[in-house]
Amino acid sequence: MRENLSNYSVVLEGVSKNYGDQQILKQVDLQLEQGKFYTLLGPSGCGKTTILNLIAGFTEASEGVIYLNNQRVNEVPANQRQVNTVFQNYSLFPHLNVYDNVAFGLAIQGRPKAEIQKEVDQALAMVELSGFQKRPIEALSGGQQQRVAIARAIVNKPDVLLLDEPFSALDMKLRKAMQVELRELQQSLGITFVFVTHDQEEALAMSDWIFVMEAGRIVQSGLPTDIYDEPVNRYVAEFIGESNILPATMVADYEVNFAGQTFACSDAGIPAGESVEVVIRPEDLQVTEPGQGVVDATVETVLFRGVFNELIAVDAQDYRWKVHTTARVEPEDFIGLNIGPHDIHVMRFNESEEAFDARIEQYSVGGESDE
Known about the structure:
Blueprint (H helix, E strand, L loop, with lengths): L7 E12 L2 E12 L3 E5 L6 H9 L6 E6 L2 E2 L10 E4 L11 H11 L4 H14 L15 H13 L5 E5 L7 H18 L2 E6 L2 H7 L2 E6 L2 E6 L1 H6 L4 H6 L4 E9 L2 E4 L2 E4 L10 E6 L5 E3 L6 E10 L4 E7 L4 E6 L8 E5 L6 E3 L5 H10 L9
Helix pairs in contact: 2-3, 2-4, 3-4
């Protein structure tokens, strides 16, 4: 029946969560391998934090089974699970200094003082806070408080570390620095991290594997590159990065018609004549001289984004193309746009509920790519 799950830190099988008549999670299945960095990505209210709370034992599943290290834990209380959580607001004790905050969990276990000091010093060194032991919490910056929260979580050597949007209170520069530090920490510790965010750039930068969620369901999971390059539907394409999404018609294998002409593409197996949508990322459009690309368009606006210019260009079919380019282009310039076959991703969108459920099942299991 159930396969050997000894290589997985966390497994959810058919897990649902209801609050009264409201269903927050709907038949969620996922498997998290040991020692990887996983991200639950989606908008507020999609069920990300509910999954963390179920894994941690802060709430009970309405349906389904939860396994930690191959052991069913549905009835196991939170304090008996080898799981620690870093909360969005850090939940530090303001009346305790840095050392006592980190040592708290070890102290209530009755561990010897010398052992506690050794473990606390090691944890603080890992988060680059050596020498901060006596600092009051109120004297720390937001980034330092976040490091203390992580040190308090890892000092108990959990099998799984859950992080619920821990960077939300940090400014952009500090967020990016902490992304690097947290990723390096996870790799050095070799434990399973489950990270919750609504920030797609954060998810793409840090994760081994991403679960994209919508309305209590996992709609796609995969490597960051797969999620970005091969979105399964419009929701994922729009949520992950920026996209040009156009209505289209499949002409034949490797041929699709949109924007008034037929283009070569890399998709096959879709019946000729079926209505589809195509996704083209702004950075995959190359600016050329007029007539040298596959589409000609007039530049409407140019926004400088630092490392690239963002253009809106209107073609003869009145479609507004979003383009990211390093080319020097001015408003009202007439340009060509080139699109390669591998830059056009075809999505089917008129699927039945049964087909949707089958696709959800296909994309619900974490691990190595099948390709």
